[in-house]
Design a protein that fits this description.
Elements (H helix, E strand, L loop, with lengths): L4 E5 L9 H13 L17 H10 L2 H10 L3 H4 L6 H11 L6 E6 L7 H11 L8 E2 L3 H5 L4 H11 L4 E4 L2 H9 L4 E4 L14 E2 L7 H16 L1
Parallel strand pairs: 1-2, 1-4, 2-3, 4-5, 5-6
Helix pairs in contact: 2-3, 5-10, 8-9
The protein binds magnesium ion (MG).
């Protein structure tokens, strides 16, 4: 068995701008109360921005709860478009000549979202093998395993060579676990300057050419 180069990728914020359907739903709901939603992509300096802004506008905590629920609603998340460049980069790395590179998706989405996530992935990334999509089990969630802990465990178990992640807290957790992790640029991770050297500043797609050169060299060295 040849050694495998294992690439792990988060989904939300890396493969898909999941905040977009949540923002669309936010604008729709706020419009029912005659509010114009002012939130722009660049305002999203935290995952809580949409909730906090909506609450500040409506002053209605009960009404605004649906923002938090939106992040767990399969009917909303499945509407997200993919980041085409990111999926192309992952597919190109996965299909590198020789077949000794594996791409896995590791997400902290809750187990109830597994079915809809599989459907989304089959639609937008049919090359992605269903058994390489990893979410927490019901038992793990009930046992208190956090998304960050789950990702670190998965990275160790799958012997990840690299992880692509957008959440700065998750990035720290993975790096502390010894996993080389590329922070994909998003407004919610630009607030921490100390992370600047570890961020893929341009698009994910810009990462692909140097990555392929490294991967081809790695594959060649393992076959030599
Ligand atoms: Mg993410």
């Amino acid at each position: 068995m040849p050694e495998v180069f294992t690439i792990l990728s988060d989904l939300d914020g890396v493969q898909a701008p999941t905040h977009e359907p949540v923002m669309i739903e936010t604008a729709r709901r706020l419009a029912t109360r005659n509010y114009n939603c002012p939130i722009q992509y660049s305002d999203l300096t935290s995952w809580h921005t949409i909730y906090r802004t909506s609450l500040a506008m409506t002053q209605d905590r009960e009404f605004t709860q649906w923002v938090n629920q939106s992040w767990f609603d399969p009917n909303i998340l499945i509407q997200s478009r993919p980041y085409t460049g990111a999926l192309l980069a992952l597919r190109t790395m996965n299909n590198i000549k020789g077949g000794i590179v594996e791409v896995h998706t590791v997400t902290s989405r809750i187990p109830a979202l597994k079915e809809s996530t599989l459907v989304w992935q089959q639609k937008h990334a049919p090359w992605h093998m269903p058994n390489r999509l990893h979410l927490r089990s019901e038992q793990e969630v009930d046992g208190g395993l956090t998304g960050d802990q789950f990702k670190a465990n998965a990275a160790r178990n799958l012997r990840a060579n690299v992880f692509f992640e957008d959440n700065p807290d998750t990035w720290k957790c993975l790096v502390e676990a010894g996993i080389p992790t590329v922070l994909i640029a998003q407004p919610w991770n630009f607030t921490q300057e100390e992370l600047d050297p570890y961020r893929c500043v341009n698009s994910f797609a810009s990462f692909i050419i140097p990555s392929l050169v490294l991967l081809r060299n790695w594959c060649h060295s393992k076959k030599a």
